[in-house]
Automatic annotation (TrEMBL), chain A:
Nucleotide-binding keyword on record: no
PROSITE patterns, sorted: ATPASE_E1_E2
Name of the protein: P-type phospholipid transporter
GO cellular component term of the entry, any: plasma membrane
Pfam families referenced in this protein's UniProt entry, alphabetically: Cation_ATPase, Hydrolase_3, PhoLip_ATPase_C, PhoLip_ATPase_N
Major subcellular site: membrane
TM region(s), chain numbering: 278-300, 856-874, 886-910, 922-943
P-type ATPase C-terminal domain: residues covered: 835-948
GO molecular function list: ATP binding; ATP hydrolysis activity; ATPase-coupled intramembrane lipid transporter activity; metal ion binding
Domain P-type ATPase N-terminal: 5-70
UniProtKB/TrEMBL annotation, chain B:
GO cellular component, one term: endoplasmic reticulum
Region (Disordered): 124-144
Full protein name: ALA-interacting subunit
UniProt-annotated location(s): Membrane
Family of this protein: Belongs to the CDC50/LEM3 family.
Record's keyword annotation contains Oxidoreductase: no
Assigned keywords, A-Z: Membrane, Transmembrane, Transmembrane helix
Keyword Zinc tagged: no
Transmembrane portions of the chain: 20-42, 291-313
Amino acid sequence: MKRYVYINDENLAKDIYCDNRISNRKYTIWNFLPKNLWEQFSRFMNQYFLLIACLQLWSLITPVNPASTWGPLIFIFAVSASKEAWDDYNRYLLDKKANEKEVWIVRQGIRKLIQAQDICIGNIVWLRENDEVPCDLVLLGTADPQGFCYVETAALDGETDLKTRSIPSACMGIDGVIECPSPDKDIRRFDANMRLFPPFLDNDVFPLTIKNTLLQSCYLRNTEWACGVAVYTVEDFYHVCVEMIRGICGIGNQTKLGMCRGIPEPKLTAVDAMIDKLTGAIFVFQIVVVIVLGIAGNVWKDTEGRKLWYVRYPKEGPWYELLVIPLRFELLCSIMIPISIKVSLDLVKSLYAKFIDWDDQMVDPETGIRSNATNTAISEDLGQVEYILTDKTGTLTENKMIFKRCCISGRFYGNESGDALTDAQLLNDVSTGSADVIKFLKVMAICNTVIPVRSKSGTISYKALSQDEEALVCAASRLRMIFENKNGNILDIKFNASPLRYEVLDTLEFTSDRKRMSVVVRDCQSGEIFLLSKGADETILPLTYTGQQVRTFAEAVEQYAQMGLRTLCLAWRKLDEGEYQEWASMFKEANSTLVDREWRVAEVCQRLEHDLEILGVAAIEDRLQEGVPETIETLRKAGINFWMLTGDKMNTAIQIALSCNFVSPEPKGQLLIIDGKTEDEVCRSLERVLLTTRITESEPKDVAFVVDGWALEIALKHYRKAFTELAILSRTAICCRVTPSQKAQLVELLKLCDYRTLAIGDGGNDVRMIQQADIGVGISGREGLQAARAADYSIGSVSGTSLFNSVSLMAYNVFYTSVPVLVSVLDKDLSERTAIVVFVITIHSYAFEKSEMEEVAMVALSGCIWLQAFVVALETNSFTILQHLAIWGNLLGFYVINWIVSAIPASGMYTIMFRLCKQPSYWVTMILIVATGMGPVLALKYLRYTYRSSKINILQQAERLGGPILSLGIIEPQSRSPLDKDLAPLSITQPKNRTSVYEPLLSESPSATRRSIGPAQRFDYFQSQSPLASTYTRKDN
Amino acid sequence: MELLNHSRFTQQELPACKPILTPALVMATFIVIGITFIPIGLSHLSASENVVELVDQYDEVCIPADSPDPDVVYSKRIGYIQDETTDKTCIRTLIVPKKMKQPIFVYYQLDQFYQNHRRYVKSRNDEQYRDPSASAKTTNCEPEAQLSEGQPIVPCGLIAWSLFNDTYTLSRNDVALPINKKGIAWESDRTHKFGDNVYSKNFQNRSLIGGGKLIDNIPLNQQEDLLVWMRTAALPNFRKLYGRIETDLEVNEIIKVVIQNNYNTYSFNGKKKLVISTTTWIGGKNDFLGMVYIIVGGVCLLIALVFITVYLIKPRPLGDPSYLSWNKNPASVQ
């Protein structure tokens, strides 16, 4: 469906499309109670409790006081309802703030200040520098005379560079109609047309692309002002409807960002799911029991029961008489699903969440942001994660590239100090004006797409497409080659206080195929034309002019790569005016071809990029977060699989993966690449990778596959089955160039295979993934708070603190503290077995003259309490003072309470407990119950423990005995998170028949690998271009 | 708050003891259990052995029924027991098997009597029994709450209405053997549960008479048979205290019991027994606890033995990480 946006004509738009009001609220004041109750009762367990509570109101059938069920039930519902209400109120406040933010709109040529929520489709919105874009706009004008403006889209796609947006050509009009598709979620496409009304241009249609738009929640940067017409508002008519029908949370957010974020689904943990399933199963069981016993009861009543004259059954019962006995049985059975399980689960979960909040080791020392568990309900799932999907930038790495070393014309700088910027020799060469060094610095400063931004105080910061470029430019400016200003195509550079000016003639853009980028610049003073190139060694080194010695550079690259640094070769060539002109026309032509443009452009570029003079090699460090390699290694040893999903380029991704132990270096590891542009290619490549993975599965090899966004799209669409198999087989995956929704799709894929997933990320592009995963961890870091808001857990900014330590810490916490939950879950199951023991012993030891009802009941109850205390004690792995208090205090509390009640004359059990405590046979019976109940449990547990140990048991034993296993927790003793990989009793979703890749746990010292990967950094590369899977050694750039 | 935030509790650093099931610990536990349980069981058995118990089932003997047809027997018995006019005296003789030292307890035992039936158990009103001013309160007492004219029945309810009313008179060598019926009910029942100025009213005044009658001018808490009866039994076979004999009985003495066989257990084929028994520290005769103690102790020793054997034959080190599943790979090559 298309929509027509009439620029600056409100009346036309107001009726059809919605305003710009943001509403993340779930409830209104009026629908809160019904809606919240409806939601709560959509869980089976709650329906069940309600049914039981209602039945208990009928005094004819209830064995207990109905308050015993109604009280807790109302309490639980009140608590969760008030929690919801509080959350919703906070959301309302946030919305209100966003809605009432003031923006300028232009109406009839006059600027007016209105609230963001009042923006209509067709309004012209006027933004100043650093303003957040309030809704999706089509750009109409900017301060820049050429019609450019810069936006930061970090919140949208996580890319921190500035993007250029331009106003549509020949768009000076103010009246017109924009014909655009109905809202969708693709943030990289916008196919619309604009038609201007007379008197400007009659019926001429201008195509609009994403280049002409400002999307919501981007920031306007480096441009004094810009204005645009609103085409999609936050809350839009159509999609409110669509999403209402989906009915999940009624977020009518319909801008590109809103659509891209997707709808958060309520998350249920494994325990929750299991309890729900169990509840269902128990309910069915109950029904069977109730029917069988009900019939038996009615038959007994009519045959035998009527003979019991002392009971005096009435001759004619009411019509529902037959129902009474079955319903009584139902109520009796209802304790099979104790309501307390829900109370205690909820309480324990929120306690865990609090523990995470409280934890001092998860506080970021730099910013002091504490970790925050937003979703209190899923903490126990942290211990059951099987797949961790992580964003790269800002999560694994600090997202700070730093120029570290360089090699200029055979001379190595920065080798002694480890930092070229402080290398005295280099500084000396710079100040003396060594020609090679100056050329090198010029390429560093010019050959890029960086935009310098001058702040008010006069300092210059750089906004760059890639962090590499930013690092290079920054380093150049530290070395006195300061890139000062970019004005259209004119670059101002200052070297040693003398200004230089260059005009950029052409930019030969970076593509992942070419692995290099070049610019053609004209020196404005001399008029000479230069080609400046930088790129990966394997693409630059072969392009040198004949006769240049490249050996030193190759050695430098090798050396730097071994240190885990990213390398770039810088080169240049002087061009003749004629050669350039000839080439430029070809380039222009290639750029305007419609078919195979990319290929044509690449080919044309190649014609210019030859006979280069290599100037040097720059080595850049992408700093990993502290502790990341160790943590990943530890987690991988624990059998947790890691996937890295990044919007980054494949090379960068692989590089990072290598340096953080994500994939192991050559002899152990193998990288398989899935790529291809067409369906066929992808299919072939996928099959080959799958085959290799299957073969290597039994080998002690660490196989990882790498896939890029395009191939992934095809694979997910057409070869889903094969890809799923691969996903299960492979422990590690690197997905590059993936969009936010692809990230979410991958999470979904893994979830469909019944794996527990944890997604971690920091940017707006990770939001969907985080929402989709079983557990989302957001980092409130440099890329804004969006991810943190969507996440179940947010952690303070990661720089400084080891993020993955935190994750493992969380998992660890849960592992050691989740025992009470497990016990409360297991409790029922155990007491069913042992209740028989209690019952049999009680009725036999309290037979005949002692069989007074209150006494027998109390003996049986005490028996249960005693037994339970011991069962809990046996199931508890770690006793702190709290556990002792809970277990034995509970036992003591039972007696204290009963003594008190026994002292009240009016109570039914007056003196009962005192009488019992005086009888030796009471205590003898208790001891017998405990011994008989616990003996088999202990024996079985011991046998299982020793002869069929679960992973946890072994690790517990090892920990207790201080065994060698501790050596894997080299980071901190706390990061023994692997231990909780599957809490055995709960792992109902454990996939079967999954053989893991061999991992020597103890054979090597993990401390050997930190940032440098060791000398042998080679990979088997199964390139799709080489059908014979020719293996060649690759140097990492 | 700050203090709380950095306490050892919130940081989960409380000193913890993490016991694991080492073989030694488990085996020691079982051996200790075995060694302590067997003596306890033995002492229990011997105590139970020392109890002298005389049981006489009299329901079938004390009723005339001479027909091969069970249905006829059934209806005849009911006709007999429900006939108020017939003399239901029945005489039994018992021989003391062993010397019985006083106090000797006299119980009546009913089998197949469901005092724990839901309808029955609930049919009482403790407030009415306790408080003379609450005599009109008969909630829960249906169908034995009020006379048809609306006057309340005190004590109301099915339990009281079905009061057991067989009586026993004992004699030894034609000398009456007194049964002391004072103090057979619980102290707490006499002092708190039943009022000392609550008197029975309209009790058993309706056409359908259940069990025993009460004396209207003696307060409820002194009619201890009622108090004993009102302590409902949890199981269908139960004994209730009838009285105490406060003299010793010698071996082979012959005791004559005159039973007034009034109570109807014939409708539901229940049994009635007279039990005369001594007690020890475990109470009455009960072999169950002793037997189970010995069995449990024995089994524990056996288990310990098995564990030791298994441990010796097939030792397995604890905490060996090579057993971790992800470290097990068939084709692993170091």
